[in-house]
């Protein structure tokens, strides 16, 4: 929502992604799950990443050829 053009995305499990990369000879050699800083929301009960600082919304992985 709010994007100038639609964005295509396809949900895949982490194991599906890692298996596909491993089949091509890649290995994961670093991984991080950064969280977003807590917000000072006017509604502390709203479901938003700013109100859920303990749940990381991002998964970053570094791959290299094994």
Q: What general form does the structure show?
A: elongated
In DSSP terms (H or I, runs of 4 or more residues), the helix count works out at: 1
Sheet with the most strands?
2 strands, antiparallel
Which regions contain 5 or more consecutive residues with pLDDT less than 50?
A: none
* Cα-atom radius of gyration: 16 Å
Q: Which structural category fits the helices and strands?
A: alpha+beta
* Strand composition percent: 15-25%
Strand ordering within the main sheet: 1-2
Q: How many beta strands in the DSSP annotation?
A: 2
Cα(first) to Cα(last) distance is: 39 Å
What would the average pLDDT be, to the nearest integer?
87
Percentage of residues assigned to helices: 10-25%
Pattern of helices and strands: HEE
Structure commentary:
By secondary structure, the protein is α+β, with helices and mostly antiparallel strands. Helices cover 15% and strands 20% of the residues. A two-stranded antiparallel sheet has the order 1-2. It starts with 13 loop residues before the first helix and ends with a strand.
Task: Identify the notable features of this structure and list them briefly.
two-stranded antiparallel sheet; 15% helix; 2 strands; 66 residues; 1 helix; alpha+beta
């Amino acid at each position: 929502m709010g994007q100038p053009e639609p964005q295509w995305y396809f949900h895949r499990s982490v194991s599906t992604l890692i298996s596909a990369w491993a089949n091509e000879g890649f290995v994961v050699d670093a991984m991080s799950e950064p969280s977003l800083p807590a917000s000072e929301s006017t509604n502390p009960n709203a479901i938003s990443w700013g109100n859920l600082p303990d749940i990381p919304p991002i998964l970053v992985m570094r791959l290299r050829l094994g």
